[in-house]
Amino acid sequence: MLYARGKEYISKFASCTESGLQCSVWFLPTTRPLGGVKSLSAVRWPLPKYDLKVLFLGFLHPPATAFSSRPFPVSILSLQAISGSMVFFRSVAALSKLRSRLAHQSTSLRSIRWLQVQSTSDLDLHAQLKDMIPEQQECLKKLKAEHGKVQLGNITLDMVISGMRGMTGLLWETSLLDPDEGIRFRGLSIPECQKLLPAASSGGEPLPEGLLWLLLTGKVPNKEQVDGLSAELQSRAKVPEHVFRAIDALPVTAHPMTQFASGVMALQVESEFQKAYEKGMPKTMFWEPTYEDSMNLIARLPTVASYVYRRIYKDGQIIPADSSLDYAANFSHMLGFDDPKMLELMRLYVTIHSDHEGGNVSAHTAHLVGSALSDPYLSFAAALNGLAGPLHGLANQEVLLWIESLVKECGEDITTDQLKDYVWKTLKSGKVVPGYGHGVLRKTDPRYTCQREFALKHLPDDPFFKLVSKLYEVVPPILTDLGKVKNPWPNVDAHSGVLLKHFGLSEARYFTVLFGVSRSIGIGSQLIWDRALGLPLERPKSVTMDWLRTYCTKAT
Ligand SMILES: CC(C)(COP(=O)(O)OP(=O)(O)OC[C@H]1O[C@@H](n2cnc3c(N)ncnc32)[C@H](O)[C@@H]1OP(=O)(O)O)[C@@H](O)C(=O)NCCC(=O)NCCS
C-alpha cells in the first residue's frame, strides 16, 4: 500500500526514472493535492522507455474537503505485479481510452480521481504531435484507399456561380461548422469548451492556449499542459526589430489591418520552413518547420498587433510584455487594458474567433496559399488580407461604426420604431446590415450567444449593449421580410465591438486586427496538419460561362 501527498508524491514519482521514464502524477477533474505520502522510494518502477500515458482507475474517495487532510491509499501492488507484462500494456491502452472518454464528461464525475503517470512528452505539444501524425497519416491513406470513389454530393451550376456554397471540397481537421448548432472545435461546442478547457481562475473563460492544444491534438489539455504551452509561446515571442521598422515605413493613417499584415510579412524573413525547404528537406518532414513557424507566428502576433495599436492611437508609447500573464491577458496588457474583466473578455475573444472550419475566406485562403508550400507567414498574411474584407472580418468594425452613427443620428434612447427605420434606411441605400447573416449558419451564432452571456454577466447596463440587444429583436424579422436573406440571425461580429468599447478599446478600425491575432491559432494549427498529412496543391477546376451553357444544354 502506498500513500500519496500532492507535490511530494509527484517529486518522488518523478525521481523514479529508471529506464529514463519521467513520471508525474495528477488527478482529474480537480487538481486538489492528495493526502499524505509515506514513501515511494521502495517502489520499483521497471517500465521501459515508452511514451506512456498510464492511468489507474478506481480511486473513489471521500469528498474533496475531507480528502485533502487525510492519507489516501493507492494500491500499487497490482501495478508492480503486472508491470512489464503485455497484460499491463493492454490494460493501460484500454484505461487510457476509457479515461479520454470520461475526461470529456468529467465535470459531473467529481467522485472519480485518476492517477495518471505520464512521460515528459505528455507536457510537450510537439512530442504529442509527433506521436499522433503517423496514425493520422494512416487514417487518411485508408480513407482514400477504401472510399476514394464515394460521392459526397452533386455540384450544381448554382453552386459554381454562387461562391461554392454547400460544396464539400476541403479537408479541415480542427473544427466543423453545423448550420444550426454552430462551431465545434475538435468536437466540442463553445459552451463545452468553456466548461472543459482550463481557465486562469476557477469558472473563468477558457485560456486560448488550451484551445490551441485542443485544435492541434484533439485532446482537452490539463492546466499543467496549458501553463507549459503559455511558457513556450512566451519563449518564442521575441519580435525582430526590423518588423517594427517595416510597420513604421507606412503612414500612421494606413488601416490597422494593412499595418498588421505588413508586420506579418516582415516576420516572414525568419521562416524556418523556407530555410528547411531551401536546404532540401524531404516532404515527410515538412510539418516540423511548419510547427516552428506556426508557433512562432502565434507567439509573436500580440506584440506586432499591440505595436500597431499603440503606434496609431497612443502616440507610439509601447507597453512591454508581462511574462507573468497568459497569452490573451498579456495581449490585453500590451494594448493598455488591465481591467481583470477585460482580460477575461480577451481570453474569450481570442478563443471564439480562432477557427470556423475551413471554407471561410481567411481560413480557406491560408489553406490554399499553404498548399503551394508557401510558409505559414506567407499563408497567414494572405489570410489577413481576406479577413480585412467587410463581408468577412472587417464586419466587426462596420458593426460598431454603424451603431455609433445610429446613436449620432437618433441618440442613445432610441425607440423600436426609430431602430426599424434605421435598418430599412441602411437596406434601401444598398448596404448590408453588418453583423447579420452568414454563409453557412442558419441560426444565431453561438459566438454571439456567449458574448451576450458575457455582457449580461459583466455589463448588463451598458447602453450600447442594450442597443445590441434591441437590434437582436428588430433586425431578424426585417431581414426575413426581404425574402432573400438565408440567415437573418446575428453572427459573431454583431456583438464583439460593444464589449471592447465598454472596456475602453473603442477604435473600431482596429477590431479586425484582434480577430486576426485569434485566427492565427486555428490557421496555424491546420497548416501543421496540412503538411503532416501531406495534403497536395489545391487546384479546383474552373469553367467559362460558355462551357457551362454548352454543358447544361447537352445535359438537359
Ligand atoms: C455574411 C454574408 C456575406 C453571407 O452572404 P451570403 O452567403 O451570400 O448570404 P445569403 O445567401 O443569405 O445572401 C442572399 C442575399 O441576401 C443578402 N443579405 C445577406 N445578409 C444580409 C444582411 N446582413 N443585410 C442585408 N442583406 C443581406 C445578400 O447580400 C444577398 O443579396 P443579393 O442576392 O442581392 O446579392 C452576408 O450575410 C452579409 O453580407 N452579412 C453582413 C456582413 C457580415 O456580417 N459579415 C460577417 C460574416 S461572419
Automatic annotation (TrEMBL):
GO molecular function, one term: acyltransferase activity, acyl groups converted into alkyl on transfer
GO BP terms in the entry: carbohydrate metabolic process; citrate metabolic process; tricarboxylic acid cycle
Active-site positions on this chain: H392, H438, D493
Name of the protein described by the UniProt record: Citrate synthase
Family: Belongs to the citrate synthase family.
SUPFAM superfamilies in the cross-refs: Citrate synthase
Any one GO cellular component localisation term in the record: mitochondrial matrix
Lineage: superkingdom: Eukaryota
Pfam families assigned to the protein according to its UniProt record, in alphabetical order: Citrate_synt
PANTHER family: CITRATE SYNTHASE, CITRATE SYNTHASE, MITOCHONDRIAL
UniProt KW keywords: Transferase
